[in-house]
Amino acid sequence: MSTKKIPLRKCVVTQEMKPKKSLIRVVRSPEGEVFLDPTSKKSGRGAYVSNDEAIIEEARKKNVLERHLKAEVPESLYDELQRFHFKGKQP
C-alpha cells in the first residue's frame, strides 16, 4: 500500500516548503490582474503565501508579491488575504 504524496509549495516570503493546502495562492492573470486563487487552479503566474497573519504583513511591508508576480498588487488584496486567513481559522 503506497502513501499518498502531499504536494509541497514554497512560500515566497519565508522560502519554506509547506503543504500546498496550508498556503494561499495569489495569481497574476495574463491580462495583468492580481487576485486570490483559493482553488489553486486558475491559470497565470502564481505565488504562494503562508496562511499566517505575520507573514501576510511581512509580504505587504516588503512588497514580496509585487516583485514575484512582476505586477502591481493592490492594497485591498492584502486585506483580502487577511480575511481569508481568519476565515480559515474558524471551525
From TrEMBL:
<dbReference type="InterPro" id="IPR037465">
    <property type="entry name" value="YlxR"/>
</dbReference>
<dbReference type="InterPro" id="IPR035931">
    <property type="entry name" value="YlxR-like_sf"/>
</dbReference>
<feature type="domain" description="YlxR">
    <location>
        <begin position="9"/>
        <end position="82"/>
    </location>
</feature>
<dbReference type="Pfam" id="PF04296">
    <property type="entry name" value="YlxR"/>
</dbReference>
<dbReference type="InterPro" id="IPR007393">
    <property type="entry name" value="YlxR_dom"/>
</dbReference>
<protein>
    <submittedName>
        <fullName>YlxR family protein</fullName>
    </submittedName>
</protein>
